[in-house]
Amino acid sequence: MRRRLRILVAALFALPSALAVAPSAHAADPTTMTSGFYVDPDSSAKRWVAANPGDGRASAINASIANTPMARWFGSWSGTIGTATGAFAGAADRSDKLPVLVAYNIYNRDYCGGHSAGGAASPSAYASWIAQFAGGIAGRPAVVILEPDSLGDYGCMTQAQIDEREAMLTNALAQFSSQAPNTWVYMDAGNPGWVAPAAMAQRLHEAGLRQAHGFSLNVSNYFTTAENTAFGNAVNSELSARYGYTKPFVVDTSRNGNGSNGQWCNPAGRRIGTPTRTGGGAEMLLWIKTPGESDGNCGVGAGSTAGQFLPEAAYKMIYGY
């Protein structure tokens, strides 16, 4: 890994300077070890473009989506997980680029929502899986988004189930701290339209946020960067008031160019957002969800499954219609 001058400025511009940012469990900064973000050569958008070169939509999808750095999601479909994360982080490292990985396999995943239900077979199975996930990354620089929706999806859960989930997330953070010292882990904090800032701050803290680098917002959703920044700052204000620390946050901008129309599952008329960079009051703006990938059998993705690449949806999202 070659050391580089820092290319990303980490700042929560709108937070009062008096709010101390709590350090994560390890101090290494992966953005200083790399020369920009990694473009996944095997993303669903890349695969579709390669398989459909004569399609009239291919050029636009290739230019506007397929070659933008974005996260790769890992779950039960990823095979031997340590091998999978190791190969992805290793390929990025050889290119001197920073990969973004999403861990999406928690036990009882999407328990209340249902569209992306699944995950590990038990809490112990998840503990083994996430330990191997972290071990695969090892000392390479990386960014990890930890279990999207896991702290928002409490609506139908018992307190015992909530406690169980929080314990799984706390253990996951411990695995990254011990095995992946050059990884920034962001716990997912939902979006501005889901859980109130005070409730989310409590959930984050109880699940171990102090040991994470920060939290993520708007994953697979559509709220504007400004709305997410306001929400992230409100969460941090609650963290400061209750627990005496704040954390940086990142925003998924992949599909928020037109903002939200109140629907979360394949709504029509959405648009791709700002490509990966710093700014907007967040530490980083990332493409975490691939534009064009379905949220499930709903909306303009009726008949599809969650994660399936829909070229027509991707094409319309480029132009916002």
UniProtKB/TrEMBL annotation:
Its EC number is 3.2.1.-. It is an enzyme of class 3 (hydrolase). PROSITE patterns: GLYCOSYL_HYDROL_F6_2. GO terms for molecular function: hydrolase activity, hydrolyzing O-glycosyl compounds. InterPro entries: Beta_cellobiohydrolase, Beta_cellobiohydrolase_sf, Glyco_hydro_6_CS. GO terms for biological process: cellulose catabolic process. Residues 1-27 form the signal peptide. Substrate binds at W73, W194, N221, W264, K289, E293. SUPFAM superfamilies: Glycosyl hydrolases family 6, cellulases. It holds the Pfam family Glyco_hydro_6. The keyword Disulfide bond applies. Keywords: Carbohydrate metabolism, Cellulose degradation, Disulfide bond, Glycosidase, Hydrolase, Polysaccharide degradation, Signal. Belongs to the glycosyl hydrolase family 6. This is Glucanase.
